[in-house]
Design a protein that fits this description.
Length: 112
């Protein structure tokens, strides 16, 4: 029986893009990633823990990010996530895909 590999849906791909882009600015813990995305998007985009942490673990497994335990400014232990070279390459690829998608959607909106 032929098994189909499920492609990630657009939302998951978008979450990856947002997380990788956020980490390209420097290391962050999970809460900081979610807070930055929400703040930069003027509270339009909200990343819930139930989506963020599985995505971070998946990206760590794929080698796009690394993580280590550190103490925060509030004297709490938190995992600090960093972008790897492979993650930067993935970010560049995802950014190109996103740019092509937005260009295509813009054309349809203008001419359809």
């Amino acid at each position: 029986m032929l098994r189909r590999h499920r492609k990630p849906d657009a939302l998951q791909g978008t979450l990856d893009l947002l997380v990788l882009k956020t980490l390209s600015c420097g290391p962050h813990h999970g809460y900081g990633i979610a807070a930055d995305i929400q703040s930069i998007s003027d509270d339009i985009l909200r990343v819930e823990e139930g989506s963020l942490y599985p995505a971070l673990h998946r990206m760590e497994h794929l080698g796009w990010i690394t993580a280590e335990w550190q103490m925060t400014e509030n004297n709490r232990r938190a995992r600090l996530y960093k972008l790897t070279r492979a993650g930067q390459r993935r970010l560049d690829e995802e950014q190109l895909k996103w740019d092509r998608l937005m260009k295509a959607v813009g054309k349809v909106l203008r001419f359809a």
